[in-house]
Design a protein that fits this description.
The complex is a heterodimer.
Chain A (H helix, E strand, L loop, with lengths): L7 H7 L7 H6 L1 H11 L14 E4 L6 H9 L40 H14 L7 E6 L6 H13 L4 E7 L13 H5 L4 E6 L3 H9 L6 E6 L6
Parallel strand pairs in A: 1-2, 2-3, 3-5, 4-5
Chain B lengths: L1 H14 L3 E5 L8 H6 L4 E3 L4 H13 L3 E7 H7 L1 H10 L5 E5 L17 H6 L4 E4 L7 H10 L5 E5 L16 E4 L5 E5 L3 H7 L6 E5 L1 E3 L3 H6 L4 E9 L4 H7 L6 E7 L10 H7 L4 H12 L3
Parallel strand pairs in B: 1-2, 1-3, 3-4, 4-6, 5-6, 8-9, 8-11, 11-12
Antiparallel strand pairs in B: 5-10, 7-9
The chains are: A alpha/beta, B alpha/beta.
């Protein structure tokens, strides 16, 4: 059973209204939908297959959109949504891979997903699983964390061909990223980089499907957090 | 010990295609041959310790068996959040192998010293901790840690301070001297100074290389009324486990180890041991006084 994009708002309303990162959650909604609807080679039946694509939600804040998409695509029961954050719920304010089918990492503390994704990408190469890609979603403010820059420099130099970062840019980094945008900080480390409208499904799909043979970042621009 | 670790790791890389090694420059020169043989599994990420542990977590998520290695303070205290979240919280495992110990780098100063490493790991659930006392104990400890990666992470704490000879590698306490006055538990490289200290004293000496889990049953079976714990890291690190082992029976415990101080002194490891009362002379003084032996 899978649902449509139009049904996502209804699923999100099933999650409790006091979810603490509401604006952040919706900034990711379109990217998450496009990933699961058109890009990722993973289904509820293949969540343990070694050659599946991996999606890592590094920006674990505001996971309502993530949970809604997982429910819409049948990874988790829709009934789980209404218990969001409860004592018996599998769904916390930050996701835990050990509690939710199809969730590849537990996140919340910022700056962990991209280093994990680099190791995962290296591990897939070492295992000969060269068809699998690793996609990791970060936020523009999350990139403040220095661990990301360790990963960006290394992944670029190592030329990891199976790694795609999608950076949601809602201009929430207090100090910004300068005139070249956040993508310039990847490009200088020899990443392939594109910027697209983070609400445009066709543009997101095209950008996320690119496989330039080196690490790739898609900056998904959405309205400023405080606009 | 580091050379033994390198050799044993080379063998694991050769024998098991799921084995991976993650480095952050430290010891990279020693692994040049391994890196040439296994470029996709021997990863030197540069001077990036957060990434080093994160990459290990990612490798484990891909089904690999990562070994992670650098200086103790950079592996455990600098990357502690990554050890906690990228391994433990993800539910994946790695073998962490450090060099430097508490004050191998005596001349290097505080920045290269990690007497707090085992205390920090004690704050996390389920980490096995091995403290070899001799280079010939390293291979078996590493092989055991590697073989148990399906269920646990391990930390192996290498040091340039070593005992004169190796003992069989066992998870239990090993009695190396029997007496009646007290039980002295010597961890890893503390065995030789302890044996030198108590040669003419009527005490039992028990040797531990695996300190987490701590062999509580083994200690309890020795039925000690007086225990002296001699650890090469922060004093009292294992005191709570001695208390647990002997809960419900009267006992006295003296915990010897590295004090919580800013040393602000250089010199040799032996200088530090002497200053902290962890050389044979200092240990003898402490044990004799505490156990009432002369």
């Amino acid at each position: 059973m899978t649902m449509t994009y139009a049904e996502l708002p209804g699923l999100m309303t099933e999650l409790t209204g006091d979810e603490k990162h509401g604006a952040s959650a919706t900034s990711t909604l379109d990217v998450l939908w496009v990933l699961y609807d058109a890009v990722l080679r993973v289904t509820p039946d293949t969540i343990d297959h070694p050659d599946r694509d991996r999606f890592l939600l590094s920006k674990g804040h505001g996971p309502a959109a993530y949970y809604a998409v997982l429910a819409a695509k049948g990874f988790i029961p829709q009934e789980w949504l209404s218990g969001f954050g409860g004592a018996e719920s599998h769904l916390g304010y930050h996701p835990d891979r050990n509690l939710i089918p199809g969730v590849e990492i537990g996140s919340g503390s910022l700056g962990h997903g991209l280093p994990l994704a680099v190791g995962l990408a290296q591990g897939l190469i070492a295992r000969g699983l060269t068809e699998s890609r690793v996609y990791v979603l970060v936020g523009d403010a999350e990139l403040d964390e220095g661990s990301n820059h360790e990963a960006i420099a290394y992944a670029g130099a190592a030329g990891l061909p199976n790694l795609t970062v999608v950076a949601i840019d809602n201009q929430s980094a207090t100090w910004g990223w300068g005139p070249g945008g956040v993508e310039s900080h990847f490009a200088v480390s020899d990443w392939s980089a594109v910027r697209v409208n983070g609400r445009d499904h066709a543009a997101l799909t095209a950008a996320l499907m690119l496989t330039p043979g080196r690490p790739h970042v898609v900056v998904a621009a959405v309205a400023a957090k405080n606009a | 010990m580091r050379e033994s670790f390198v050799s044993a790791t080379e063998n694991l890389l050769d024998e098991d295609p799921l084995t991976a090694l993650v480095l952050a420059e430290i010891s990279a020169d020693l692994f040049g041959k391994a890196a040439a043989r296994h470029p996709e599994r021997v990863l030197n990420v540069g001077i990036r310790e957060q990434l080093m542990v994160g990459v290990a977590g990612g490798l484990a998520l891909a089904g690999m068996k990562p070994i992670v290695h650098t200086y103790a303070p950079f592996l455990i205290s600098r990357a502690f959040e990554q050890v906690k979240l990228d391994l433990g919280h993800q539910g994946v495992r790695a073998v962490l192998v450090s060099v430097g110990a508490s004050y191998d780098a005596a001349r290097g100063g505080r920045t290269h010293q990690a007497p707090e490493d085992v205390t920090l790991l004690d704050a996390l659930p389920g980490m096995t901790v091995h403290v070899p006392g001799h280079q010939d104990e390293v291979r078996a400890l590493l092989a055991g840690a590697h073989a148990s990666l399906d269920r646990q992470s391990s930390y192996i704490r290498l040091s340039v301070m070593t005992n004169r000879s190796a003992l069989p590698v066992r998870p239990e306490l090993q009695v190396v001297k029997s007496g009646s006055g007290a039980v002295v538990v010597a961890v890893g490289p503390m065995l030789d100074p302890v044996l030198d200290a108590v040669a003419d004293l009527d005490v039992t000496v028990a040797y531990a290389t695996t300190v987490r889990p701590f062999d509580e049953a083994g200690l309890a079976s020795l039925a000690p009324g007086t225990v002296v714990l001699v650890e090469p890291y922060l004093a009292g690190t294992s005191a709570r486990l001695v208390s647990s082992a002997l809960a419900g029976r009267p006992h006295r415990l003296l915990s010897l180890g590295v004090p919580r101080v800013e040393p602000r002194r250089y010199g040799t490891p032996e200088d530090h041991s002497r200053r902290y009362g962890l050389d044979a002379t200092g240990i003898r003084r402490s044990v004799a006084e505490f156990a009432g032996l002369r």
